[in-house]
Design goal:
nucleic acid binding, two-stranded antiparallel ribbon, G patch domain-containing protein 11, rod-shaped, GPATCH11, 8 helices, DUF4187, 2 strands, G_patch_dom, 260 residues
Length: 260
C-alpha cells in the first residue's frame, strides 16, 4: 500500500529551506570584482589618453625648473671651482642671488619685442589723447569767452541804437518846442524826412553815415544836456546846468546803472 501512495511534493523532502549565508557571501565578492574591473578600465583610459603638446611641454618645463642640478653637472662643477657652495648666494661675499632667475615663458604668438612696442604705442596714444583733450578744453573756453564778448557787443550795439533813437525823438520834440525847423545835424532827429530834403541833403547824409552810432549818441547827448539840460537816462529836463550836474549821475548809460 506504501508503494501505491503518491509522492507528497509539499513534504520536507522536496521543500528545502534556502541558505541565507550563502547569498550574503556571494554579493561582496561580485561587488569587489566589479570595482576592480572599473578601476582597471579607468587606468587604461588615462594611459591611452594623449595630452596636448603644450601641456606636456609645460609639465616637463615645470618639473625641470623645480629640480636642482646635481653636483656631477658640468655647470655645477664650474660654479664649485669659482667658490660656490650649495645654499650660499653668488658673489665674493655670498650676498648675491640664492635662487635661479625665474623664467618668464612667453605664451602669446607675437614676435620678440612686439608686446613692449605695443605698450609704448598705447602709452604715446594715451598721452596724445590727454594733450588733445586739454587743447580742446582750452579752445572751448576761448570760444565761449569770444561768444560772450560777441553777445555783449551785440547787446551794447542794440542798446546804443535804442538810446540814439530815443534821444532823436526827444531832440525833435524839444527843437520843435523852441520853433527850430531844421535839426542842427541831420542825425539829431529821427530819419523821417521828405524826399526833397533827402535829395537836397544827399551829400550830408553820406557824411552822416560815416559817423558810428556811438559817436552820434555822444554828440546828441552833449547837445541835449547843453541846450536843454535834458538827460535821456534820467528821463528828466532839469532847470539849469547846476541842477543837471548835481542830480544827474553822468552823461552815459553806464553811469545810470545800479552797479555804477
Amino acid at each position: 500500500m506504501a508503494e501505491d501512495e503518491e509522492d507528497d511534493y509539499m513534504s520536507n523532502i522536496f521543500v528545502e529551506e534556502p541558505n541565507p549565508h550563502k547569498s550574503l557571501l556571494c554579493k561582496p565578492q561580485k561587488v569587489a570584482r566589479k570595482h576592480e574591473l572599473e578601476n582597471k578600465r579607468k587606468d587604461l583610459n588615462a594611459k591611452s589618453r594623449v595630452q596636448p603638446r603644450h601641456i606636456v611641454e609645460q609639465e616637463s618645463r615645470t618639473k625641470g625648473l623645480a629640480t636642482a642640478i646635481t653636483e656631477d653637472n658640468p655647470g655645477f662643477k664650474l660654479l664649485a671651482k669659482m667658490g660656490y657652495k650649495i645654499g650660499e648666494g653668488l658673489g665674493a661675499k655670498g650676498e648675491g642671488r640664492t635662487e635661479p632667475v625665474p623664467v618668464d615663458v612667453k605664451s602669446g604668438r607675437t614676435g620678440l619685442g612686439r608686446d613692449s612696442a605695443v605698450k609704448e604705442a598705447q602709452a604715446r596714444r594715451q598721452k596724445m589723447q590727454v594733450v588733445v583733450k586739454e587743447k580742446r578744453a582750452k579752445l572751448e573756453k576761448i570760444q565761449h569767452k569770444q561768444f560772450r564778448e560777441r553777445m555783449r557787443d551785440r547787446f551794447n550795439y542794440k542798446q546804443v541804437e535804442h538810446d540814439l533813437y530815443k534821444s532823436q525823438k526827444v531832440c525833435l520834440h524839444l527843437d520843435e518846442s523852441s520853433d527850430i525847423e531844421r535839426p542842427k545835424c541831420d542825425f539829431y532827429w529821427p530819419s523821417i524826412v521828405t524826399e526833397d530834403e533827402q535829395n537836397e541833403d544827399s551829400e550830408d547824409d553820406d557824411d552822416d553815415e560815416e559817423i558810428s552810432p556811438d559817436d552820434k549818441l555822444i554828440l546828441l547827448t552833449e547837445y541835449l544836456r547843453t541846450e536843454y539840460f535834458y538827460c535821456i537816462w534820467c528821463g528828466h529836463r532839469f532847470s539849469d546846468k547846476n541842477e543837471l550836474s548835481q542830480e544827474c549821475p553822468g552823461n552815459t548809460a553806464a553811469c545810470h546803472d545800479d552797479d555804477c
